[in-house]
Design brief:
- The protein has 149 residues and is an alpha+beta fold.
- Helices cover 14% and strands 31% of the residues.
Length: 149
């Protein structure tokens, strides 16, 4: 859901949307309220590439996803939009091998330090059709505008 009237934008691989490819800033300030209202018991997870320090994206883990991550040695998250376990890269091949898991001081968020096993970590692709290395590929210019890095 974007902050522009609460409409849902598709985040399916290969489907370009204004949300993912546009230059209008559409922050979703309702995301955490929606997760809480749905009764999902999750913690935020920052996924960071261990070699470069690049922040790839922020996801969520419930207890099942957390345990699966530790058992598999790869990033497994809980999809708050689909309400299902999500083994990152299971279909694309762009899995993330777990190097280390850290927990913050209040034990209410996690940091997964990972290595990319494929072309990227984001489900979107660049203009050449190549998976983006991470999901932070735009820079905020002002309260309404972004530009590509």
């Amino acid at each position: 859901m974007g902050a522009t009237g609460g409409r849902f934008e598709s985040c399916q691989p290969g489907m370009s949307t204004d949300l993912e490819e546009g230059t209008e800033l559409q922050l979703d300030f309702t995301k955490l309220v929606a997760i809480g209202s749905a009764g999902q018991h999750v913690v935020p997870v920052v996924l960071q590439e261990v070699e470069t320090g690049e922040v790839l994206f922020v996801g969520y883990a419930n207890e099942e996803a957390f345990r699966a991550t530790l058992e598999r040695g790869q990033a497994v998250l809980w999809s708050t939009s689909r309400n299902e376990l999500w083994h990152k890269g299971a279909t694309s091949g762009d899995t993330l091998t777990l190097v280390e898991v850290r927990v913050n001081c209040e034990q209410n968020s996690l940091l997964y330090m990972v290595r990319r096993d494929g072309a990227g970590a984001c489900h979107t692709t660049d203009e050449d059709g190549v998976a983006r290395s991470g999901c932070y590929y735009r820079i905020v210019i002002d309260p309404a505008t972004v530009r590509f890095t």
